[in-house]
Design goal:
Chain A: Keywords: Iron, Lyase, Metal-binding. The complex is a heterodimer of chains A (about 210) and B (about 250). Chain A is about 40% helix and about 10% strand. Chain A is α/β, with parallel strands linked by helices. Chain A has 2 domains: about 10-50, no CATH class; about 50-190, Alpha-Beta Complex (Nitrile Hydratase, Chain A), CATH 3.90.330. With about 250 residues, chain B is of the alpha+beta class. Chain B has 2 domains: about 5-150, Nitrile hydratase, beta subunit (Cyclin A, domain 1, Orthogonal Bundle), CATH 1.10.472; about 150-245, SH3 type barrels (Roll), CATH 2.30.30.50. Classes of the chains: A alpha/beta (about 210), B alpha+beta (about 250).
Chain lengths: ~210, ~250
């Protein structure tokens, strides 16, 4: 039977149509009493102020200055979160069971979700575009060094690469290495060096 | 086989797109928010941990909606559509289709309003409706803070221990699966047995959805893919539900 498949063609109005459709949907859902006029904005606001990579950055900076805290963070990420002055909810949505793996001179870790986009919301927020892109998900598991080089990270063959695929309900993330030249920095200054990419294993931390 | 389940290791792809924004178009934020609200208002949360008083929340939303449902829709798509559409485009199609099929809105209402926004830029730019019961948003916030943990007491001791070799079963995924297809038939070493058991939002045809042990498995890439296609010195870890595994 011949396929009617139209191919990968996009209309010039691709984004305009999606924008109109989602606004139509949201306005109907508000009128029908499914959500309120504030629901979507309050969710987006929550990810700007409560759940985001700023939390992960604080955890990593604390781990860099306090080896005992680092040991507790690696052993039980959720319990370590409770020690911090974080907003309520660090074991909330998509963070119920988090684990962190440590990069060292010998081992480099990367996270992926080949099935879709699992991600530790409380510590890293929402996943960036590249993490959700099927090309990254397909390639990083078989050729992680090549993918890393496309992100600008070159690893020696002596470094073991570990790729962590979130196929069940553990949400993984990465404790990157502390860069040299940061000895005099405060915890807050150290936190300012961190990016989501570093905490997912596709970037190193730069001063 | 569904291509959506078998992404790992595909050949012939382009360099990765390293775009670091979460949302590449403003409209994508809105569908993300709608989906998150649906998860936070889902009728299954009354039986969840913690025990939400979901029936008392004054929303008209009375359906069961989780990540599993969103994913089931994506797994049911024509595979070429799955790759043609961007991430949140799939969400928009699946979620609006769900609201129509469950009877919250009609397709005619949605199409007419979409057309009105496309034809009249003033209407398209007008503010969204306001109002609604604040108790709905209180439940959404509570869900974000408390989550929906799948962890449960172990019903029976785990079948496998750290150091065991196990093989991933070649089970049919059915409508929804949490087993990456590219692992099927391959062997791995158990490196961690997670404490307790894990359930899933609902029972699937391939066997998850009741509390069972979950294992962290380490796969050698050269055991999954031809050695000529792999790189040196790397390991690939997955968290796999016990029902998907058999002894070697």
């Amino acid at each position: 039977m011949p396929s009617n498949y139209p191919g990968f063609k996009y209309g010039a109005d691709r984004e305009t149509v999606s924008a109109a459709k989602v606004k139509a949907l949201e306005s109907l859902l508000i009128e029908k009493g499914v959500i309120t006029g504030d629901t979507v904005n309050s969710i987006l606001g929550y990810f700007e102020t409560e759940m985001g990579p700023f939390n992960g950055a604080k955890l990593v900076a604390r781990a860099w200055v306090d080896p005992e805290f680092k040991a507790r963070l690696l052993a039980d990420c959720n319990a370590a979160c409770e020690e911090m002055d974080f907003p309520e909810g660090m074991s909330g949505a998509e963070g119920e069971h988090m684990r962190i793996v440590e990069n060292t001179p010998e081992v480099h870790n990367i996270i992926v979700c080949t099935l879709c986009s699992c991600y530790p919301w409380p510590t890293l927020g929402l996943p960036p575009y590249w993490f959700k892109d099927p090309t990254f998900r397909a390639r990083v598991v078989r050729e992680p060094r090549k993918v890393l080089s496309e992100f600008g990270v070159e690893l020696d063959d002596s470094v073991e690469v570990r790729v962590w695929d979130s196929s069940a309900q553990i949400r993984w993330w990465v404790l990157p290495m502390r860069p040299e030249g940061t000895e005099g920095m405060s915890e807050a200054e150290l936190a300012g060096l961190l990016t989501p990419e570093a905490m997912m294993g596709v970037a190193t931390v730069k001063v | 086989m569904k291509l959506q389940h078998n992404l790992g290791g595909l050949e012939g792809l382009d360099p990765v797109n390293t775009e670091t924004q979460v949302f590449v178009e403003p409209w994508e934020q809105r569908i993300f928010g709608i989906h998150t609200a649906m998860m936070a208002l889902s009728n299954h949360l009354g039986d969840s941990l913690p025990d939400y008083a979901i029936e008392e929340v004054p929303t008209e939303f009375k359906s069961f909606w989780t990540w599993g449902h969103l994913r089931m829709g994506a797994e049911g798509m024509h595979p070429f559509d799955y790759f043609r559409l961007r991430y949140y485009e799939k969400w928009l199609g699946g979620i609006s289709g769900f609201f129509v099929s469950e009877g919250y809105i009609t397709q005619e209402e949605l199409d007419a309003r979409t057309a009105a926004f496309l034809e009249d830029s003033e209407q398209a730019a007008a503010p969204l409706p306001t109002g609604g019961d604040p108790a709905i948003d209180a439940q959404v916030l509570k869900y974000l803070q408390k989550g929906d943990s799948p962890k449960r007491p172990l019903p029976a001791p785990p079948k496998f221990s750290v150091g065991d070799r196990v093989r991933v079963k070649n089970v049919s995924p059915g409508e929804h699966s949490r087993l990456p297809g590219h692992l099927k038939g391959h062997t791995a070493e158990v490196v961690l047995v997670y404490e307790g058991a894990f359930t899933y939002f609902f029972k699937t045809e391939d066997g998850i959805g009741v509390p069972m042990p979950v294992y962290s498995l380490a796969f050698k890439n050269e055991e999954i893919w031809p050695e000529s296609l792999t790189e040196p010195n790397s390991l690939y870890y997955n968290d796999i539900f016990e029902v998907y595994l058999e002894a070697v």
